[in-house]
Specification:
The complex is a heterodimer of chains A (about 575) and B (about 120). By secondary structure, chain A is of the alpha/beta class. Chain A is about 50% helix and about 20% strand. Chain A is rod-shaped and about 155 Å long. About 5% of the residues of chain A have low confidence. With about 120 residues, chain B is an all-alpha fold. The longest helix of chain B is centred in the middle third of the chain and has 28 residues.
């Protein structure tokens, strides 16, 4: 019976008559508090926790009946057992009290044997009742948690967007376990082995972490990710695995912690961490709950990832489709003119063969041959473009730029002659690591454009420089010109350029130049077109960038960069 | 010694005394304390009864008699306790009439109980 020891409140206005009672209960290790009247008793009942009340009936201020009535009408006091103290000649009062909800009665003077039996029985009943209620409460909490868990599992797997999955997961885990915060960590795609915080919830608020990272194996999350098993840590700062740097960065103070790995397709993809349990400690039960939730979440992550990959594929396919459309359109457009010309002259030749002079015939045939050559060039360009698009990796070799430029010049020699072009270039060229046939194609494009659209006669200048651009900026803008450099180039970049003395291009025209196929007609009106989109593809494939600097009336500079060795 | 014991036995119910000894775990010191408190309190209560009688205060009579009833029963002073019960009933009925005679009897009874308790106290 040693467990039936409790805190007993004795309510009686006659100290002498209860002195032996108090003495005896204290000898039996109960904690005894005495109230001298009903009012005082109620104050004490609200202020402290009692296991049993021994209540005298006849008292000034507030009698025993009133105390009983009050206690039975109050949810917080209703379940505390009351034993009524009565004189032997007050039996009818004791009976009345029992009908009002008192557990039992004791008569004065107290009999020690009866006293022990009745107090013991009352305390035992109270203990069993408390236990039962605790079990009930626990069951209720368990049931609520399970319902929530079930719902979360369903909800989570239905969401297909990763940030949403993470947000929902964090909300759910905080609610189910009852914690101050939670966070999700996934492997860093840039630095393998590192974990990056995807999102964190603290005190019900979403915090977007600013690149919170845990280096490989560091912190409790890092340990969990490597070990592949969950942990319970009752006081994190004492744990040797704990990394205080995260708390320093967030201003959060971690005490208790629970972390589980997120498994997808037999490998750990990240860690779910729950911190600071609101009441009590994280236990095995919480661990099991969080693990269940993490399993649903991992499936959801996996789904979201698949959907994202699918979306990327779709986007790529859409872009390719558009490109193909534009490609087909360009092919048709570019080939139509020479075909029409050839067909027109051939038709005239056939119809009026006998009437045509030999001179005319010769000219017609010459035009037909020229247009045939044009078509052939266009088809060559298209084939090159198709190859560039297909190539995944280019085999880079040391390349003597001087001979590449010379080859290109040879190819446009007929054009230079036709336009009486003056071509100026340096005597020495650097060596680069690149792919000769493509670079030659770039020069041919730039040079023929410069000759065709330069001054009359054209003056074309070639050159190169070594640029070390500031981070985040393109190659420096020429005097009064606009640089159309897509992105910043890495330090120590070789830039090759062709300057013409043509009419120059407006900013709008410049912007359209290298755009493959899109709205090509407008650019083609000035002759730049298919060629430049090939140039751009080639240069980008080789790790460089194309650019143009121009101002109306001041000529243009077309350039491309190549990474230095 | 025998006569004193006899006197005690007559005035104080041995079963009740045994019960009390049992209650306090045969703690002699505590018994002495209880007896002293009773011997101190009881005359005050009898005085209160006189006051109730003079002032016609039936409620005071009831309360005082109720307390003295329990306290004397504790030591087995059954005759005194019974007198107090009668006085309590009177007070409960809202009257003090005829209480004077009972109070005087209670005082007489108490003086004997007091002697018996003092003897008992010395023997502890």
């Amino acid at each position: 019976m040693t467990e039936n020891i409790g805190h007993v409140l004795i309510v009686d206005d006659d100290p002498l008559s209860i002195a032996p009672l108090v003495h005896r209960l204290e000898q039996q290790d109960h904690t005894v508090t005495v109230a001298e009247n009903g009012r005082q008793a109620l104050d004490m009942l609200y202020a402290q926790s009692f296991d049993l009340v021994l209540l005298d009936i006849l008292m000034p201020e507030m009698d025993g009946y009133q105390v009983l009535e009050h206690m039975r009408g109050d949810d917080t006091l209703r379940d505390i057992p009351v034993i009524v103290i009565s004189a032997v000649d007050e039996m009818e009062s004791a009976v009345k009290c029992i009908s009002m909800g008192a557990e039992d009665y004791l008569t004065k003077p107290f009999n020690p044997v009866l006293l022990k039996a009745r107090i013991g029985a009352s305390l035992e009943k109270k203990r069993l009742r408390d236990q039962e209620q605790a079990y009930l409460r626990q069951l209720q909490i368990e049931q609520e948690r399970l319902v929530l868990l079930n719902r979360m599992g369903r909800d989570l797997t239905a969401i297909l967007d990763l940030p949403q999955v993470i947000e929902r997961l964090l909300e759910a885990v905080i609610e189910i376990v009852g914690a101050e915060g939670a966070s999700v960590w996934l492997w860093d795609t840039e630095q393998p082995g590192n974990l990056v915080c995807q999102a964190a919830f603290q005190h019900g608020q979403r915090r977007t972490p600013h690149s919170l990272r845990l280096p490989s194996g560091q912190g409790i999350a890092g340990w969990v990710a490597e070990a592949g098993e969950g942990v319970l840590v009752s006081h994190a700062p004492d744990d040797p695995r704990f990394s205080p740097s995260i708390d320093r960065q967030t201003g959060f103070r971690t005490t208790s912690l629970l972390a589980v790995p997120l498994w997808a397709r037999r490998s750990v993809i990240g860690v779910l961490e729950v911190v600071n349990k609101l009441s009590g400690h994280f236990d095995q039960h919480d661990l099991a709950l969080v693990e269940t939730l993490a399993a649903s979440a991992a499936i959801a992550f996996h789904n979201a990832e698949l959907v994202e990959t699918l979306r990327q594929h779709t986007l790529e396919l859409e872009a390719r489709n558009e490109e193909l459309d534009a490609f087909a359109h360009t092919v048709a457009h570019d080939l139509k003119n020479p075909v029409s010309t050839i067909w027109g002259f051939a038709d005239t030749l056939e119809e009026s063969f006998s009437e045509l002079s030999e001179e005319s015939m010769r000219e017609y045939l010459h035009l037909m041959a020229q247009n045939g050559l044009k078509m052939n060039n266009i088809i060559d360009e298209l084939l090159l473009l198709a190859r560039v698009r297909k190539v995944e990796e280019v085999d880079l070799k040391p390349l003597d730029m001087a001979s590449t430029v010379a080859d290109a010049r040879e190819r446009i020699a007929y054009l230079a002659e036709e336009y009486q072009a003056d071509i100026i270039m340096p005597e020495v060229w650097p060596m680069v690591l690149s792919y000769g046939p493509w670079i030659e194609e770039v020069w041919v494009n730039y040079l023929s454009n410069a000759i065709r659209y330069g001054g009359r006669p054209p003056r074309v200048e070639l050159g190169f420089d070594v640029s070390t651009p500031q981070p985040g900026r393109g190659t420096e803008t020429g005097p009064g010109g606009t640089a159309h450099q897509a992105e910043s180039v890495s330090p120590l970049t070789l830039r090759f350029w062709v300057r013409d003395d043509g009419p120059g291009l407006t900013a709008e025209e410049q912007a359209r130049l290298f755009t493959p196929f899109t709205r090509l007609d407008q650019v083609r009106a000035k002759g730049h077109g298919l060629g430049l989109s090939i140039v751009r593809r080639i240069v980008e494939k080789l790790g460089g960038q194309v650019g143009v600097e121009s101002q109306v009336g001041q000529g243009s500079v077309f350039s491309f960069t190549l990474p230095s060795r | 010694m025998a006569t004193t014991q006899e006197g005690t036995m007559g005035l104080l119910d041995p079963a009740a005394l045994e019960n009390l000894q049992e209650m306090v775990g045969r703690d002699a010191e505590f018994m002495v304390e209880l007896i002293d408190t009773f011997l101190e309190d009881a005359p005050r209560m009898l005085g209160d009864m006189h006051q109730a009688l003079e002032g016609g205060d039936a409620e005071l009579l009831r309360r005082t008699a109720h307390s003295l009833k329990s306290n004397s029963a504790e030591f087995g002073a059954m005759a005194l306790s019974e007198l107090c019960r009668e006085l309590e009933t009177m007070g409960k009925a809202g009257t003090v009439e005829g209480a004077d005679e009972l109070i005087v009897r209670a005082e007489t009874e108490f003086s004997q109980v007091k002697a018996a308790l003092e003897t008992l106290r010395q023997g502890l």
